[in-house]
Amino acid sequence: MKIRHRIVRLIAAPLLFAAAVTAQAETLRVAIGTQDTTINCATGGLLIRELHLLDKYLPHTGKYANVTYDVQWKDFTSGAPLTNEMVAGKLDFGAMADFPGSLNGAAFQKAGRRSIFITVLEGSIDGSGNGIVVPVNSPAHSIADLKGKTISVPFASTAHGMLLRAIKAQGWDPDTDVNIITQAPEVAGSALKAGKIDAHADFVPFADLFPYRGIARKIYDGAQSHAPTFHGALVDAAYAQKYPEVVVAYLRAAIEANRLIAQDPEKYSLLIEKVTGIEAPVDYLYHGPLGLQTRDLTWKPEYRQAVATAIDTLKLLRKTDVNLDANTFVDDRYIREAFKESGLDYDAALKNHARQPLVANDALTGKPIRDFNDVAQIWLPNEAHVRNYANVEEAFAALAKLGPSTGKARAVYVHDHDGGLKLLAPDAWYVRDAHGNITAFLQKAGADAYAQHTSGSVVDYAAAVKTTAASQAVAAR
Q1: Following DSSP, what letter does each residue of 225-254 receive, concatenated?
Q2: In this structure, what DSSP letter does residue 367 have?
Q3: What is the pLDDT, as a whole number, of residue 20?
Q4: Which residues form the signal peptide (predicted)?
Q5: Residues near 100 by beta carbon (within 8 Å), at least 6 away in sequence
Q6: Which pLDDT score is estimated for 407?
Q7: Which residues of the chain fall short of a pLDDT of 70?
């Protein structure tokens, strides 16, 4: 009983699916399409592959007793080419978001076949993960400032759906009040730096990666749209029917990947960075405790609704004319069995809407952190784990005390006071009140309103850290 692995990046030789292969045959293909740079797919692809988790669960008894597995991996930067290869019979599994996933189901149906959505991997019932950014020096601070402007977005993506909802919420006509153009993330990054576009809407992780790299500012998070979004895994329905035990094995591997990254998100964020080049602090922003999205392998009603919304929106965009039924397209039988075989309670997980919890002591006082509204974190380059602080002023005071030997922080994280959204600290706005308390906000409008209510002052990140350091120096005298 052998397992062979093939890892293919972007271009692979044609591999035709042989319909005559059976579970009793010598070789059984398990071909998985991943999206490594779409980091919330990690537990359904990158981590399974890099940690060889699938090998642990592939069946080797009964009808699989004499099988040699030919495990093939192929990485993609978006869902559309992955779907093309699934429909062509070159891949059995694929990981992608709700919008491209729905196009996957429509493409299969148009070809007279079926694919099924078998699990969620990571998502947000509010819509976080998608976002809108503007050039660093842009005068825009919210989507309300983008009327009449040019906004780029990868067409037919989950970010496209978010953008259309955000425009509708402003009461604008997307055909006349803004100029929406299609642009892939790698093109948009250059366009933002050159000031060739006014704004860019994108999916995980680009609305946070671009600000982290200093080429854009985030002015809108998908959570403001309150429209669920997720990335998940699909499989060719005929393959799943023929080899259900293999599908369950893949899902058990995803469950283990989820468990491992929950136990040590910093370690595996560094692994994701090593493989993809997406910086670990951005990976941790999603995968760490209280992250932007929740790693969730259950089909919550909100995620089922996201599929239905994606199907409807894609039809409105004239991207498909297929009547795909979300109720049959989503199939939870395999993930339920994987939970059962892993000794987990699927129904209990289905009811749990909480983010990955933060269980930590304050790095300054040593006391357990109980209130998470204003918690802050610092990740230093010479430390394996982030430092946790009960509030922003504590964290900024700690930053001021860091010496040259410590080095510049990998990242500093704060939380939006209005919605609890985890933020990269340099991208937030802050209100400093008369007592020296500092409160973080995603949007300047929120900070302005809070400052007026508390008689505080609105400052940016640099000013917030500087004034905290000055206060600490005065207090030490």
Answers
A1: GT--EEEEEEEEHHHHHH-HHHHHHHHHHH
A2: P
A3: 36
A4: 1-25
A5: 78, 79, 80, 82, 83, 156, 157, 158
A6: 66
A7: 1-2, 4-25, 403-407, 472-477
Does domain 3-123+229-351 fall under CATH 3.40.190.10? My reply is: yes
Q: Are both 3-123+229-351 and 131-225 of the same fold?
A: yes
Compute the distance between CA of residue 416 and CA of residue 206 in angstroms, rounded to an integer.
19
pLDDT, one tens digit per residue, over 338-350 is 999 999 999 999 9
Q: What values do phi and psi take at 72, rounded to 5?
A: -120, 135
- CA angle 473/387/53 to nearest 5° reads 165
Domain boundaries, the chain: 3-123+229-351, 131-225, 376-476
CA distances from residue 329 to 56, 107, 235, 337 in whole angstroms, order as listed = 28, 12, 11, 18
pLDDT of residue 317: 85
Residue whose entry in the numeric block shows the structure tokens 């004034």: 467
CATH of 131-225, one of 3.30.2130.10, 3.90.780.10, 3.40.190.10, 3.40.50.2300: 3.40.190.10
CA–CA dist 43, 63 (Å, integer): 28
CB 70 within 8 A of CB 8: no
* 121 to 254, 326, 373, 422, 442: CA distances (angstroms): 8, 18, 26, 19, 26
In the prediction, which pLDDT does 474 show? 52
CA 151, CA 222: separation in Å to the nearest integer?
Answer: 15
Q: Against a cut of 0.90, is the pTM above it?
A: yes
Q: Which two tokens stand for residue 225?
A: 């749209």
Residues 99/158, Cβ–Cβ less than 8 Å: yes
pLDDT for 14 equals 36
Beta-strand ranges (E) seen in 283-342 are 294-295
Nearest to 116 by CA among 134, 127, 104: 104
Coil vs helix vs strand at 44: helix
Q: Which residues of 123-138 are buried (b: 16+ CB within 10 A; e: fewer)?
A: bbbbbbbbbbbbbeeb
